[in-house]
Automatic annotation (TrEMBL), chain A:
Keywords for this protein: Cell membrane, Membrane, Transmembrane, Transmembrane helix
Topology term for the membrane: Multi-pass membrane protein
PANTHER family reported in the protein's UniProt record: GUANOSINE ABC TRANSPORTER PERMEASE PROTEIN NUPQ, SUGAR ABC TRANSPORTER INTEGRAL MEMBRANE PROTEIN-RELATED
UniProt protein name: ABC transporter permease
Species the sequence originates in: Pseudophaeobacter arcticus
Subcellular location(s) of the protein: Cell membrane
Ranges annotated as spanning the membrane: 12-30, 42-59, 91-113, 172-189, 210-237, 270-288, 304-323
Domain of life: Bacteria
Lineage: Bacteria, Pseudomonadati, Pseudomonadota, Alphaproteobacteria, Rhodobacterales
Pfam families: BPD_transp_2 (PF02653)
TrEMBL record, chain B:
Organism for this UniProt entry: Pseudophaeobacter arcticus
InterPro entries: AAA+_ATPase (IPR003593), ABC_carbohydrate_import_ATPase (IPR050107), ABC_transporter-like_ATP-bd (IPR003439), ABC_transporter-like_CS (IPR017871), P-loop_NTPase (IPR027417)
GO molecular function: ATP binding
Keywords attached to this entry: ATP-binding, Nucleotide-binding
Superkingdom in the source lineage: Bacteria
CDD domains: ABC_Carb_Monos_I, ABC_Carb_Monos_II
Cited PANTHER family: CARBOHYDRATE TRANSPORT ATP-BINDING PROTEIN MG119-RELATED (PTHR43790), GUANOSINE IMPORT ATP-BINDING PROTEIN NUPO (PTHR43790:SF4)
Name of the protein in its database record: ABC transporter ATP-binding protein
Automatic annotation (TrEMBL), chain C:
Origin organism lineage: Bacteria, Pseudomonadati, Pseudomonadota, Alphaproteobacteria, Rhodobacterales
Subcellular location: Cell membrane
Protein name (Swiss-Prot/TrEMBL): ABC transporter permease
Pfam families assigned: BPD_transp_2
Superkingdom of this protein's organism: Bacteria
The keyword Protease appears for this protein: no
Length: 335, 509, 364, 309
């Protein structure tokens, strides 16, 4: 594999890691606050649909993004209602939310657009398009020289290749997702909110008796989770693709969950895990079976690798993943 | 006349069908230490948790410094100047001491300035009250005594004028407890008001100005400490004259039944919990294990009962029992005629959702008399349960009632009946009367003594020195995973044992 | 004292939850501009109005009984087995191996060994997460989710690269031989003079499923193993006190659970498709969660709930066939059932408990 | 009343299934008749859908795609009075099935020629759906067309996957297209059902030309889709429905001569197709019909002279 191909695979990694990263950070806020969330998938799916639907109807992708976030928030609210207010089983609530999203998106899409559960393809105003950085090789250069971009790229130096191919040209949501990583780290470890958030996931009674509302904190965390899942879903439907098709999240919510465990609930590591899983996806997308000398790695192995790695991490063979101590448990004061 | 620092009027609180507090009124003068005593489950913690805004009362009013105050949550309580150290600490284990202290009392959205500020204040407080802790240690790295200091510092950091301590000495050694009382004295001298919940009459007599007694959710009396006596308080607590000693004949110890040599336990975190225990229990005697909670008694019972593994050797009637691997589990212990009444009956001794009859078979569910072919013989178990319930006077005698629907005393009777009626060679019995009403205490004590008189060996663990002194023939004191010494009960007293419990070694017996 | 009588817990709460879910579903149907009454009528007609409809309802119900029992058995041990889907997929592989490579003289024998094969594969697939939970403390919910995805990849690989006949284009195994064909209800009932639709797939596996319900009931409430499973599920500390090995019970309960999920393959793979196809499970593993929740983890409850969901599935298929309502409506209903009977249980329970408590207090 | 069973890509895949829908729609509009339809969601549903329609008396029952072969072979004998129609299957042995195959390689040959003529980089791409002989058949014809115009041209071929989900994976289509573009391709032919939507989208985004398949997909990105390889599934469906229950069973092949395949020319791509191009392609078309040019079929010996997969 030559350098440019490598850069291109990494470029595709960044694109594919973005929804994972957003969903993973979403899960991080929720689970750090003690609310397990296996409904990331459903929230993303819901947001993907509503962002595409509203963007298709209004032609404005920003309105689409807002609608996606709002729909995801609604599901977050449901999860909060079930697991915080009514102290129900968080896992079961997550399962229900995944099904709800899988069913409702198709039902509504069919009702609105009558295209077998998809939205119409989004035209350019309805999509997040790539941001070309200054001096990056782009269509203008191609037009000026009369030669295709791929040719120009091939002839450029490695720095220019990295700059133009890997860094430049992603949609704004990609940059947002990667900026969210340091932001999350800072919020978690450098702010009062972060301290309380981490505390409520470890020992809600300590937070409660310290005079801080457990319910408020947890709802705040779940809401942040909703917003991030909303962005993740909108990215899928309006940036990575141009419209919604049913089940378009295709298990990304679960890969994000896996990445979260892989990262042991820490932001920088979450980025690493998402990039790794994104890389696996990029490789699986580009190459069917990978020949490593005499062994052929089937594409199915690449598909399954994130899950296998997560199980290995969970099993503690490579470091131990200890979830937030109060995670999954409703905070019950009076039995 | 100054207004009372705290005045509670007509507080009621129920948890579902359980009425924990019934129309309670109490008044505490500022600058005093007020004790609250009462049996387990009397409602002491509930009442204080209401004052601290942890629970919300169903009815009643709270007045602070003469003003009626709504306390819907702990924030309100903190604002009203109340601080509370809970029976079970409320600390975030993997946070540092400093982080625990600022949690909820940060000033500003950013963390660093708060932490710097808190570090300074903490230093001052530590100097002022002899409350030294390392602010950068994580909670799970420090001992319980230290953790309690953190809890007290948390309250002081929030400038509490009223400090509630719920059974603070249960986890402390006598010297640590003494230091605590010194600190409390100093706080009182500064005009702070302190409420102290404890079971220990001695602490009430020594440290408090006034004392309230609770029984079954009600406040039975409030008296000046100087005008009362331990006997009087005990009577108020249980509602009738208390029998302090159990009627029993002197023991006639026979051959050794249980011989423990160099027993060690290292827990999952690598901490050594038992550090080479040597003990012998003879047929026909009761050996009591005294000690402050958390000094290895639970681990000793667990390893003997087959609930965890250990190193060293134990022999039962001369035959070695494996301490780990195959044959070291509780099922094998039962097969070897070791019966076990666990310390925590609700967590271990019973399955609370199971019916009484299922609980009667619990642990013995493989017994041949409970089987019929491949299936369990439920009818036989039920009949057996009815017989045992009758003999032990379990009320109501209904095998189909779930364990959680029996009262604590009756729950304990179900467990004791199950274990004693197996006619074991060795009975391990932990905290046999914790949370049990006085009538049941007498009954259970009598059953234990009867078993001894049949020539069985009994190992009794209790944190109540009084219980050990009245029931055991011999006593061994545990401290920090070691036996500090053994005494013949008739030849020792509370004072000597108390010193040993604090880690001051007595001469070997 | 109980907060509430047992019948309220076992019957009243699921009923109210179900009604809430049904009400919301009706609103959803209304919202997409269809008539809920007509929809229900169509569903009832299509699912229960003919022996053909019943045949499909029972066919689906058979699947759900297996997966529902799987979730229920694990739940009694305090474990949430969300991996029924993957275990059922592997069960399919087990059935395919048994049926494709061994020349069976008669279907009875084939079914017996198919049950074994499916159970074994399913149990093995559940055993790994169980072991990891018991020995290494990995959260079983997460591992079983991961194992669902891994199972899909394994099946995909095996179908495409191993089992697919060389001449065929679709990723599916060859058809099983005629001798392992399981008698359908039509064939079973014909000798009794009962006419049953010839084309409905309900087959003798239904009896296996009913038998499994019975066996699970016996196991859970009548054997000492069941006693240990239930005790462990209620209190791990208690189990250790009673000499019940947490490791052993976790693994055994999960293997039974996985075996039950795997045995679903006798119905959908051996009984219906008669070959192994991709996604043969069609989400039945997840429906098992709803079925177990509805049925309160009791085999009889699971039996009833499975039939209810069988009805929903067949009715939903009919809706998709004859109206503009997409099949996803069933997914929404399923989600609502899980939500109300599972996650929002307390929403119904707490007010109900208050009512019962108030009634009890007044007389005294 | 006829019935139509769509394959997993779904009725609105803008391609294979949508073409069938178009044919059925035309029949319905022209005759005022109605038809039953269902979109399959999973493999396991195929048989139930067939039986349900047969039970309900639908006739003929039109089904899409080679994956219906197996279920049909077990269902059709149970309903001897019902006529079944299947597209892309030609090897079943049953008296009541009409099996329609297309000479996709011939149509692909024509669009391959156009691709080669439009390419400036002498590199063209092919994105297939599920890796099955049928799709290789497409690719093989395409590559032969490319080489016929420019023997030195490079054809980059990728398949989306090995399972039916490959028909409906636009993200993967898009990624594969990006990869091909970076290898220099400036015309990409998508024969991948719903996955093709992602291919065409990315091609349009990145400023290269694409070629649609099955339906006329020129309108999806006007001025950016060079042409579409038409596979007249719509005609096959229309004909079957028009014939009603009298539809003739047997195996039928539709090639260039039968106007079963072809290329699309309309306002959306008029500016892209030069007169030279049109002349060359039309000439080749006639030559193929006349047997002067032989387009090798991948099925002949499961290999392709012009392309390695
Ligand atoms: N959170 C709760 N939910 C339900 N019931 C409770 C709760 N807390 C306490 N109770 C019940 O209320 C009653 C009073 O309990 P409380 O903890 O106040 O007793 P206590 O006097 O502090 O006992 P102890 O000496 O054991 O600490 C008991 O019956 C107890 O079981
Ligand atoms: N979810 C349920 N659905 C249907 N029936 C149930 C359900 N739960 C319990 N039952 C039935 O209610 C009765 C009482 O339940 P349960 O088995 O818990 O009681 P039990 O007193 O332990 O009786 P048994 O010893 O017969 O099991 C039994 O007949 C049982 O079959
Ligand atoms: Mg208390
Ligand atoms: Mg029962």
């Amino acid at each position: 594999m030559d350098f440019l191909t490598l850069i291109q695979v990494l470029d595709s990694t960044v694109r594919l890691a973005t929804p994972l990263l957003l969903a993973c950070l979403a899960g991080l806020y929720s689970e750090r606050a003690g609310i397990f969330d296996i409904g990331l998938e459903g929230k993303m799916l819901m947001a993907a649909f509503f962002s595409a639907a509203i963007a298709a109807v209004t032609g404005n992708v920003w309105l689409g993004l807002l609608a996606g976030i709002a729909s995801s928030l609604l599901l977050s609210g449901l999860h909060g209602l079930a697991s915080i207010t009514f102290r129900g089983n968080q896992l079961i609530s997550g399962v229900a939310i995944n099904f709800l999203a899988a069913g409702l998106t198709v039902l509504i899409a069919q009702d609105w657009f009558k295209q077998g559960g998809r939205t119409p393809s989004l035209l350019s105003g309805g999509r997040f398009e790539g941001l070309e950085w200054p001096f990056a090789i782009g269509p203008e250069d191609a037009a000026a020289t009369g030669r295709p971009v791929s040719q120009l790229m091939k002839e450029a130096g490695p720095v220019q290749q990295v700059y133009s191919e890997l860094l430049s040209g992603h949609s704004i949501l990609v940059y947002l997702a990667f900026l969210a990583v340091p932001a999350t780290w800072w919020i978690l470890y450098r702010t009062r909110f972060g301290l309380r958030l981490r505390a409520v996931g470890e020992n809600p009674a300590a937070v409660d008796t310290a005079g801080v509302s457990v319910v408020g904190l947890r709802f705040a965390a779940v809401a942040i989770c909703g917003v991030l899942c909303g962005i993740a879903g909108a990215y899928l439907a309006t940036a990575l693709q141009a419209g919604f098709v049913k089940d378009m999240t295709a298990g990304r919510g679960f890969i994000a969950l896996a990445a979260l465990i892989f990262a042991k609930w820490r932001p920088w590591q979450a980025m690493g895990a998402c990039l790794l899983f994104g890389l696996l996806q990029a490789i699986a997308l580009r190459f069917q079976n990978i020949e490593l000398g005499p062994i052929v790695v089937p594409v199915q192995a690449m598909d399954a690798l994130p899950y296998i790695l997560t199980v290995v991490i969970l099993a503690g063979f490579v470091g131990k993943a200890v979830p937030p101590r109060a995670g999954g448990e409703p905070y019950v004061k009076e039995r | 006349m100054t207004a009372p620092a705290i005045e509670l009027k007509g507080i009621s609180k129920s948890f579902g069908p359980v009425q924990a507090n019934k129309d309670i009124s109490i008044s505490v003068a500022p600058g005093t230490i007020h004790g609250i005593i009462g049996e387990n489950g009397a409602g002491k913690s509930t009442l204080m948790s209401i004052l601290y805004g942890f629970y919300k009362a169903d009815k009643g009013e709270i007045w602070i410094n003469g003003k009626q105050t709504e306390i819907p949550d702990s924030q309100a309580a903190i604002v009203a100047g109340i601080g509370m150290v809970f029976q079970h600490f409320k600390l975030v284990e993997n946070f540092t001491v400093l982080e625990n202290i600022v949690l909820g009392a940060e000033d500003g959205g950013l963390l660093m300035p708060s932490l710097t500020e808190a570090r300074k204040i903490l230093k001052e407080l530590a100097a002022e009250y002899e409350l030294n802790v390392d602010p950068d240690k994580r909670i799970d790295e420090i001992g319980v005594g230290m953790q309690q200091r953190v809890e007290i510092l948390k309250a002081l950091y929030r400038q509490a004028d009223i400090l509630i301590l719920d059974e603070p000495t249960g986890v402390l050694t006598p010297p640590e407890a003494d230091q605590l009382f010194r600190i409390l004295g100093r706080l009182r001298a500064e005009g702070k008001t302190i409420i102290l919940i404890t079971h220990k009459l001695r602490e009430i007599m020594e440290a408090t100005d006034t004392v309230s007694v609770m029984r079954r959710g009600q406040m039975t009396a409030t008296v000046k400490t100087s005008e009362t006596s331990p006997e009087h308080l005990a009577e108020l607590m249980v509602g009738r004259k208390v029998l302090l000693r159990v009627d029993k004949l002197p023991a006639k110890p026979g051959k050794p039944v249980l011989e423990i040599e160099q027993l060690r336990i290292v827990d999952g975190a690598g901490v050594e919990r038992l550090k080479g225990i040597d003990l012998t229990v003879h047929a026909g005697e009761i050996l009591g294990i005294a000690g402050v909670a958390g000094n290895g008694q639970s681990e000793l019972m667990e390893v003997l009962g087959g609930m965890r593994s250990g190193e060293g050797s134990i022999r039962l009637n001369g035959a070695a029992l494996p301490l780990h691997g195959a044959g070291s589990d509780a099922r094998a212990r039962r097969a070897a005629h070791v019966a076990h009444v666990p310390e925590d009956r609700q967590r271990e001794g019973l399955i609370m959702d199971f019916h009484a009859w299922e609980n009667t078979a619990f642990g013995y569910h493989h017994a041949p008399e409970y089987q019929r072919g491949l299936l369990m013989n439920n009818a036989a178990i039920r009949a057996d349960t009815e017989a045992k319930m009758k003999k032990f006077d379990v009320r109501p005698p209904d095998p189909l009632l779930a364990a959680k629907n029996f009262s604590g005393g009756n729950q304990q009777k179900i467990v004791v009946a199950r274990e004693i009626e197996r006619n074991p060679d060795l009975l391990l019995i932990g905290q046999p009367t914790r949370g049990v009403d006085i009538g049941a205490i007498e009954f259970i004590h009598k059953q234990i003594v009867d078993l001894r008189d049949q020539g069985k060996a009994i190992l009794l663990v209790s944190v109540e020195l009084e219980e050990i002194l009245s029931l055991a023939d011999r006593v061994a004191v545990m401290f920090d995973g070691m036996i500090m010494g053994e005494r013949i009960v008739a030849e020792t007293d509370e004072k000597e044992l108390g010193l040993m419990m604090a880690g001051v070694a007595g001469e070997a017996a | 004292m109980e907060k509430m009588p047992k019948w309220a817990d076992v019957v009243l709460i699921p009923l109210i939850s179900l009604m809430l879910a049904a009400g919301l579903s009706a609103l959803v149907i209304l919202a997409i501009g269809e008539d809920p009454v007509a929809a229900v009528k169509l569903m009832v007609d299509g699912a229960l109005g003919s022996s053909y409809g019943w045949g499909y309802t029972l066919y689906y119900a058979t699947n759900f009984m297996f997966t529902g029992l799987a979730v229920a058995v694990a739940a009694h041990a305090g474990l949430f087995n969300i991996g029924g889907e993957g275990q059922a997929m592997l069960g399919g592989l087990g059935v395919a191996v048994i049926c494709l490579f061994i020349p069976w003289p008669h279907w009875t024998l084939a079914l017996l060994f198919a049950c074994l094969g499916a159970g074994l594969f399913g149990a093995a697939w559940a055993a790994i997460p169980a072991y990891l939970q018991a020995k290494r403390g990995s959260h079983i919910v997460i591992t079983t989710i991961m194992f669902n995805f891994i199972a899909a990849a394994v099946l995909n690989y095996v179908l495409v690269n191993v089992l697919k006949p060389a001449s065929s284009m679709d990723p599916a195994s060859a058809r099983f031989s005629e001798t392992v064909h399981l008698p359908t209800l039509h064939e079973l009932l014909a000798p009794l003079g009962i006419a049953f639709s010839k084309s409905a797939p309900a087959n003798v596996s239904l009896l296996v499923a009913v038998f499994a319900c019975l066996a699970v009931w016996l196991l859970i409430w009548r054997t000492s193993l069941g006693f240990e499973i239930r005790a462990f599920g209620r209190s791990e500390a208690g189990a250790r006190y009673a000499g019940i090995s947490p490791v052993k019970i976790t693994i055994i309960a999960m293997m039974i659970s996985g075996a039950l999920a795997g045995m679903m393959a006798t119905n959908n793979v051996m009984g219906e498709a008669e070959r192994l196809v991709l996604n043969a499970t069609e989400g039945a593993g997840f429906i098992g969660i709803a079925v177990a929740l509805m049925g309160r983890n009791h085999p009889f409850g699971v039996f009833l709930a499975a039939i209810l969901f069988g009805f929903l599935y067949q009715g939903g298929a009919e809706l998709a066939l004859w109206t503009k309502i997409p099949r996803e409506l069933i997914v929404v209903i399923q989600a609502l059932v899980i939500l109300f009977t599972g996650a929002l249980d307390n929403m119904v329970r707490i007010p109900l408990e208050k009512i019962f408590l108030a009634f009890r207090k007044e007389p005294s | 009343e006829p019935a139509l069973i769509f394959d997993l890509g779904g009725k609105f895949d803008k391609s294979f299934n949508e073409a069938a829908f178009g044919g059925a729609q035309r029949w319905a509009e022209e005759t005022g008749g109605t038809f039953r339809e269902i979109e399959l969601q999973s493999e396991a549903q195929r048989e139930q859908a067939l039986r349900r329609f047969a039970e309900a008396g639908a006739n003929p029952i039109v089904t899409m795609g080679f994956a219906m072969a197996d279920p049909l072979s077990s269902v059709a004998p149970d309903y001897p009075d019902t006529k079944f129609v299947v597209i892309d299957v030609t090897w079943l042995d049953a008296p009541n099935i009409r099996q329609v195959g297309f000479a996709e390689h011939e149509g692909s040959y024509l669009v391959g020629m156009m691709a080669a003529m439009a390419s400036k980089s002498d590199t063209v791409g092919f994105v297939g759906g599920m890796d099955v002989p049928l799709i290789r058949h497409f690719g093989c014809g395409y590559a032969q067309g490319v080489k016929a115009v420019n023997p030195d041209a490079t054809v980059i071929a990728n398949m989306t996957g090995t399972t039916p989900s490959a028909w409906n994976d636009p993200v993967k289509g898009s990624e594969l297209t990006k990869a091909q573009i970076s290898q220099g391709a400036d015309v990409v032919y998508a024969a991948a059902g719903g996955t093709g939507v992602g291919v065409l989208q990315t091609a349009a985004d990145e400023g290269i030309l694409s070629i649609g398949v099955d339906s006329n997909q020129n309108h999806l990105h006007p001025g950016k889709v060079l042409t579409s390889m038409l596979k007249r599934v719509d005609v096959a469906v229309y004909d079957a429905m028009s014939a009603g229950d009298a539809v003739e069973a047997g195996v039928f092949s539709m090639g260039l001569a039968e106007e079963g395949v072809g290329y699309a020319l309309d306002d959306n791509n008029a500016a892209l197709v030069t007169d030279d191009m049109k002349a060359a392609v039309d000439k080749a078309r006639q030559q193929i019909i006349d047997g002067e040019i032989e387009v090798v079929s991948y099925y002949a010996d499961n290999s392709c002279p012009a392309l390695k997969f």
